[in-house]
Amino acid sequence: MQHSGIPVLKNMHAYSATVQTDERSNHQNTYRLLFIEALSVTLTINNSTHTLKGFGCISLPPNTSLHIHKDVTESLQLPSEQVRIYACDYEWIGENPANDPLLTPMLTEQSNPFLLEQVSTLYDSYKNQFSNSVSQRLPIQAQFLTLFADVWWALEQPDSIHFTKPLDGIDQVISYLHTHYNRKIQRDDAVFMSGLSLRKFTLSFKQRTGSTFIEYLNRIRIDKAKTIMLQSQASLNEVANQVGYSDEFYLSRKFKQATGMSPTVYLGKPLKIASLDHAYTLDLLSLGVTPCVAITDAWVNHRFQLPQTSNSFQPLYWQTQHAERLQILQSVKPDIILYPLVEASEYRQIEQYSDIGLVIQIPWRGINWNQHFMHIAQLTGLEKQARSWLEYFEHRAGQIRESLHLALNPQTTVAVINVRSDRSLIYGYGYMGADLLYDILQLTPPQAVKAMRIQGFEHPEFSLPQLPAYDADHYFVSIENNQAARLRAADMMKSTEWLERTAVKQQCVYPVDMTKWYGYGPAALDAQLDDIVHYLLPNNPKK
After folding, report:
1. DSSP string, 266-322
2. What is the pTM assigned to this prediction?
3. What pLDDT is attached to residue 542?
4. N or C end of the chain: smaller count of CB under 10 Å?
């Protein structure tokens, strides 16, 4: 494999799991080397699946979807049979992207523990560094380069596994433009990258995108400029530099050519917003903004008294088909479409939406719900209202926390169980009320859930024989809204393992609406607080 750059280590993580089944999803915006040691795990990378037995190393380009599922054998596994994962996030410096081939996800399986020992030693050095000084960092970078060279050699061997076929020439160029729009990009570089003649490239690019190369690149840059202006206080000159234009004057000229107005006028005009993600909908409604089109559900409609349909609001549901969503959006013509984050290589998913309005994707990775809320507030210019809402919520949650600590014994444990059509999950943090219960209200999880939280496991799957490990005084149980999940829950609740649980014996099992508890935004957490007060503080006055 060829590459003109030098890799630089940016971050390292380590995970381990001893439960019989574990699921972990990975979606990173950097290059990553992932080292996995396990008895048996199933890897799904960009819809391609492979079973890894023993030890392997995966090279992941940015924005690669990876799902890791720990396989379950018929016999019980020993607790020592762990899944161990090391992740090295890195970036390339000094590269010449126009001449570098597009990297694809690759796996090398190793019977020799040499690479595992190397990455383990590197991680020990990384986590034990005392400062960020050059004398501390350079030896770690040297260790990483040695490890990287050995991994790269292993990935170059004929028995390594490629998970995806390389994109064709035009798709390579388009994917590159969506990722590197801020760089100086000449048409000749794009032609070279595509491997086509100038004539063939020009015809194929226009056929694929409906635009010339320059028109398409300018459209990406103007859309990115709009997004930056709406989400930050950056000056026009800073925006120009971030999207690949020489200065603010050139940006303003291109902006007016594309939109018919200056950047200043654009920022001052009222904008119609469509939300194609439940979390965005909750954020907007909590700020008092009713989107013109939005993904919603029954409890949200009821809580915010949303109309079934009107001239100013069109509801969408998860089951609303893609074609119908497009039709509704085309009729409403929103200025901004908030869309779930997708990989840069999956640009085709949002191309049709981009033709309707400005598509803005706000990542969840690395930020919590209130930071996400503030992103939406900044986008809408409602930071003051957002801070006011957060103050209200902090005050309300604080009062409820004090009441719970008075009402419950400090040793009282609470667990969150979610039953779906094909699996059952126990939540340690994040969604399904886990952050609310354990972090905001400071309630006590079972010991096994405490261990999960320390190890960074959000919601591992569990089987009935494992249920005793998650014994608790109180269970909040959500069930997916389909017949298969309801039958699965009914079977679980007839089992000996369930009937012997403390919460079941004490009649402290609380059914909650999964659509409400899966929510991870302001309105959802506020609604979840209502349920917690209802079940754990029945004598408290209602909101």
Report:
1. HHHS---EEE-SHHHHHHHHHTT---SEEE--HHHHHHHT--SS-SS-EEE-TTS-H
2. 0.59
3. 61
4. C
